[in-house]
Amino acid sequence: MATITLEAEVRTDLGKGASRRLRRLESKVPAVLYGGDKEPQSIHLMHKNVTKALETESIYSSVFDLKVNGKVERVILKDLQRHPYKPIVLHMDLQRVSAKDVLVKLIPLHFLNQDDCVGVKEGGMVNHSMMQVEVRCQAQHLPEYIEIDLLNMNIGDVIHLSNLELPKGVALATSPGDAAHDHPVVSIHLPKLVEEVEDVVEEEGLEATEGDGDAEGVSESAEHKEHHDHDKHEDDKSE
User: Considering the domain 103-190 in this protein, what is its CATH number?
Assistant: First the structure.
């Protein structure tokens, strides 16, 4: 499990103007820390440290340490605002959590053995219908990611939400107990071009079969005509 620690300082200069000055002049990210049995707290973090931490996938789905003026808080990233086109983080919302707090979070899916699975070796392609799932669990059980092994999947196989092997203490936020909620997660299928070619070959095969039947009919008619002409010729001779 990746270990993430961010350092922050309490800020007393509040307001939009103060936040703009933090970002522009000091390269800092204004943020709010809330939750637990404490009052919300306005803080700021160094922008370079935030952007580096955001390169780690687990920061979006796991509990990590936040040092505020040297005191450690256990938090989750609740919200993140980015500049629409510049690589700048504008604001962060961080929530305090305890080990037994029940959380609902989106967790990324990691797909194992994609290139080595049976279906891919037979010419199939992996189709990801989901890249993350929403789970419910205590903070102490929150996984960084959920693994799905595709090794034994064949062409036409589908893994649904109900087929996922979840870590201990973790449940899907919405139960896939009925078919309406048991959505597909990943499947193996033939490439579209191959499917189209197979359809064309099948159609041509049917047409060829039907054509052979017509040819036999023509041949049979011609044979009947030949007998008819021969009989007519014999009748003319007899006359």
Answer: 2.170.120.20
